[in-house]
Amino acid sequence: MILLCDPRVAAVPGADDGEPLIDLRQVPELRLDGRAADAAAAYARLRKGVVDRLLTAQNALPDGLHLLVIEGYRPYQAQLDIFTGYHDELRRSHPEWSPERVYEETTKFVSPVEVAPHSTGGAVDLTLCTGDGTELDMGTAVDATPEASRNACFTAAPTISAVARRHRRILVGALTGAGLVNYPTEWWHWSYGDRYWALLTGAPHTRYGPV
């Protein structure tokens, strides 16, 4: 499992092709949830290439199922606040852990700002829902921490139910087929064009840099 703290992620050469951020509120084919909404509506924005791939993934889903987007673009300061908050929480909860372990465990749930996929507009948190908006059982809630879920938030977690495992396979199949990559400690987190995507796919550089 490659974590976002892996030096190979930061070593990927950065580039940005200038692709615009698209407001998902103007894309009726994709469903957008408001739980992560912010005053500037950053949560609703994604790079055009990601939106195109989500539309492809949506079309690959079984009849009656839909992607439900929770959060897209996340500004630098918001990313830093989340990272710092979870890092401090783990440090207080586990005084026996070394600083290195606290940092590594933090990155299982939130990316260091230097390589953060969300801050490029290339990452999206999402789940599956039915036509009436009912969310499918995915084994954990979106944004469940490894600590709270006992690692059930890991995409390949063996401890979730057969139903949740089937739903995750549907999500993985559609999004992988559309060209996105998953962060394996968060079943809901997918990206394209960022450093993590470039490392996993062998791309020579990123398509998107920080916005």
UniProtKB/TrEMBL annotation:
It catalyses: D-alanyl-D-alanine + H2O = 2 D-alanine. Its EC number is 3.4.13.22. GO terms for biological process: cell wall organization; proteolysis. It holds the Pfam family Peptidase_M15. Zn(2+) binds at H118, D125, H189. One of its GO terms (molecular function) is D-Ala-D-Ala dipeptidase activity. Keywords: Cell wall biogenesis/degradation, Dipeptidase, Hydrolase, Metal-binding, Metalloprotease, Protease, Zinc. The active site is at E186. Catalyzes hydrolysis of the D-alanyl-D-alanine dipeptide. This is D-alanyl-D-alanine dipeptidase. The lineage of its organism: Bacteria, Bacillati, Actinomycetota, Actinomycetes, Micromonosporales.
